[in-house]
Structures are given as structure tokens and as C-alpha cells.
Write a structure and sequence with these properties.
The protein is an alpha/beta fold and about 375 residues long. It folds into two domains: about 100 residues, Enolase-like, domain 1 (2-Layer Sandwich); about 240 residues, Enolase-like C-terminal domain (TIM Barrel), CATH 3.20.20. Helix content is about 35%, strand content about 15%. Strands 4, 5, 6, 7, 8, 9, 10 and 11 form an eight-stranded mixed sheet that branches. A three-stranded antiparallel sheet has the order 1-2-3. α5 packs parallel to α6 and α9 packs parallel to α10. The chain binds magnesium ion. The site of magnesium ion (MG) has 5 residues, from loops. It holds the Pfam family MR_MLE_N. Keywords: Lyase.
Length: about 375
């Protein structure tokens, strides 16, 4: 079997899919994307595809090595995400070739279902309770929300009270038996993050995410040492090497993204590294169906797994959503807040190729907003 063609498709709301075709007719799909920089990843996939054409797709690990290290310069979001999508597609091909789900090729399942959480906005506290009640009604046992909208450089008593009020609304709406997680999105400085984590601790969050932006990882230990609240991050880390300092700094929940951190191959290794720190995995995935399918495959066969993010109805999605490009929604039909295991070959997702090709004819150009403080200076989004 040889790889004959690699194509990419820009599909709304903000995704990039890749399709790897072999000479036997077996096709694999992947989702190589950096949100807001999809065109750049598309170019990177095009360059990496030069090597793959004519190669045996079943040599997944060797290709990962060449694509990641063979160009001398390595790492970072663009290259690691390009490799990630191609890696997903190669695992998809391998599963279809051997007639096995990817989790079956990775040692077999260790669980029958995967707990997932739903997003609620959180930027507007007024709508929060209703949004949470909707997700509880839909059966979810956990939600994630932003702690706030834009955060100022310092928190007034009123600012902090507004963050605490959101956490209290969430706890009240969920009751004591369900969970909420809070995403700080790297919006807070280290000092503010410490204030916020301490203030919402009584509401018992499942975890607090990205209390520091990735360039301040060397200060993560100050936050983890000061609170019993589990601290999570990882969507902006791209390899085992990137995760190591976070783990040694007391990271409690590792959140690699299957479409950013080198794909299934590298996230499996990140999980194994995290396991040596007694840290579970909660893969980041505000993305499309292929990224989620790849995440679920890893979740089914990874012992140290906690919970899976998924993007159905997420505020980013707008007009296009998780199920718009799949022929069979069953893998994403969550029951009681869980995804049930699929034993279909490969990633277990049936991509609607016609819908994907149609969407790519008017490609999106999604960009994150640029936020500014009251004084006109750049604020973290
Ligand atoms: Mg996040």
C-alpha cells in the first residue's frame, strides 16, 4: 500500500481537515489545525505531504519521526499540528487496513464509555444558570466555562466578586454531584490567577485551566503550591518535552490537544509521561469531529484518563457544528454525559466527503478577536 494523495479542506466554523488517499482505495482523515491560523497549517501539511507521497502509510511511527524531526527545525504549534492531523489520518488508514479500531491497535480498550463535558459560555453571568440547566437536562454531568470575559490588569473587589458569583451559580445549578471546570484562558497574570483560584476554591471546581499563559510555565509552581484546586493546562503545549516542566511544577490535569500535540502517536506518549506523575489526561478539543474521534480513541485505551472536551454547541461554532461533516452521528451521541465506545475500524468516524468538499469551496478565514484594555493596550483573549 502506498500513499497517493494528500488533500486539505478549510471547513467552517474554523477547522482544517486532511484526507490521505492510498493506492488501495483506503482513505484516512485527520484534522490538522491551529484555530485562527488554519491557512498556515494547510501550507505546512502541503510541505510535509511531499515526503509522504509514495510511502507505505502503515509505518506510522517512522513517518511521525521523519515529519517531526526530519526537517531539523521542530516543534511549535504549526508544525506539531500539521504532523498531528497527518498522524491521525495514518492511524485511521492503519485501523481500516487491519479492520480494527485505533484503540484496538494501541492495546485495546480499558473503558466502555468516556465521560465528556459540555461548554457553557460564562462570559455573561446572566445567561449562565440557564445554559447550565440546559446541559444538565441533556444529561451532562460536567460543564466548563470561562471565569470571566476580558480580565483587567488588576482585579477590583467587584471584578473578583463577579468571578466568584459565576462559580457559585454553577455550583448551585449543578448541585453537589456534578462538576464544573473554569477556564482562565491565560487571561490572568500569575498574581491575579492566584487570587481567582483561592476565591473560587469553596465552590469546588473540577479543575482550573490555564491560570498562566504558556510562556510563564516557570511560575506555574507558585499557583499549584498555593491551592488544593487541581490545575489543568496543555492546549498550548506540543510534545512530551513541553509537558515535562508543567508536570514537575505540579500540573494536576494534562490537556494535550490531539490536533496540536503531534497527534495520536505523541498524545499517547504524553499520557504515559503524565502517568509517571500520577496525572490524568483531559484532552483539549474545541474542534471538529475528526479531532474528537481521535481524542476518543485515545481515551478508550488510556488508563490515566479523566474527562474529554467536545465542541457540540460551543460558542465558537456559530453556523457550523460538530455533526455537519459526518455521515453517522452515533459516535457523538452522548448518553448520560458519556460517549460510548465504537469498535468501527480506524478513527470510527465516517466523514461526509461531499459536505467537506462543498464547504472548502468557500473557505473560512476565522480569526480570534483582538481584545484591548480600557487604556487601549492589548489584552489576552
Ligand atoms: Mg482552554
Amino acid at each position: 500500500m502506498k500513499i497517493e494523495r494528500v488533500e486539505t479542506f478549510m471547513v467552517p466554523p474554523r477547522w482544517l481537515f486532511c484526507r490521505v488517499e492510498t493506492d488501495t482505495g483506503v482513505v484516512g482523515w485527520g484534522e490538522p489545525v491551529v484555530e485562527g491560523r488554519a491557512e498556515v497549517v494547510r501550507a505546512a501539511v502541503g510541505v510535509l505531504a511531499e515526503y509522504l507521497i509514495g510511502q507505505d502509510p502503515l509505518r506510522v511511527e517512522d513517518h511521525w519521526q521523519v515529519l517531526t524531526k526530519g526537517g531539523f527545525y521542530r516543534g511549535g504549534p504549526v508544525l506539531s499540528s500539521a504532523v498531528a492531523g497527518l498522524d491521525q489520518a495514518l492511524w485511521d488508514i492503519a485501523g481500516k487496513h487491519y479492520g480494527a479500531p485505533v484503540h484496538g491497535l494501541l492495546g485495546g480498550p480499558v473503558r466502555d464509555r468516556v465521560r465528556v463535558y459540555a461548554w457553557v459560555g460564562g462570559d455573561e453571568p446572566g445567561e449562565l444558570r440557564e445554559a447550565i440547566e440546559e446541559q444538565v437536562e441533556a444529561g451532562f454531568t460536567a460543564i466548563k466555562m470561562n471565569a470571566s470575559g476580558m480580565l483587567p490588569r488588576s482585579l477590583s473587589a467587584a471584578d473578583l466578586a463577579a468571578v466568584v458569583a459565576r462559580a457559585e451559580i454553577a455550583r448551585d445549578a449543578l448541585g453537589p454531584g456534578r462538576d464544573f471546570a473554569v477556564d482562565l484562558h491565560g487571561r490572568a497574570s500569575v498574581a491575579l490567577a492566584r487570587q481567582i483560584v483561592a476565591a473560587i476554591e469553596p465552590a469546588h471546581p473540577l479543575f482550573v485551566e490555564e491560570p498562566v499563559a504558556p510562556e510563564y510555565l516557570h511560575r506555574l509552581g507558585e499557583i499549584t503550591a498555593g491551592t488544593p484546586v487541581p490545575i489543568a493546562l496543555g492546549e498550548r503545549l506540543y510534545s512530551r518535552t513541553d509537558f515535562l516542566p508543567a508536570l514537575t511544577a505540579g500540573l494536576a490535569v494534562a490537556q494535550p490537544d490531539l490536533s496540536h500535540a503531534g497527534g495520536i502517536s505523541e498524545v499517547r506518549r504524553i499520557a504515559a509521561l503524565a502517568e509517571t506523575f500520577d496525572v490524568p489526561l483531559a484532552p483539549h478539543c474545541p474542534l471538529g469531529p475528526i479531532a474528537l474521534a481521535a481524542s476518543l480513541q485515545v481515551a478508550f485505551c488510556t488508563p490515566n484518563f479523566l474527562i474529554q472536551e467536545q465542541s457540540a454547541g460551543i460558542h465558537y461554532n456559530g453556523d457550523a457544528d460538530l455533526l455537519d461533516y459526518v455521515l453517522d452521528p452515533a459516535p457523538f451521541d452522548f448518553v448520560d454525559g458519556y460517549a460510548r465506545r465504537t469498535d468501527a475500524p480506524g478513527l470510527g468516524v465516517r466523514v461526509d466527503e461531499a459536505a467537506v468538499r462543498r464547504a472548502d469551496r468557500s473557505p473560512h478565514a476565522w480569526r480570534n478577536p483582538v481584545w484591548r484594555h480600557d487604556d487601549g493596550s492589548l489584552a489576552e483573549w
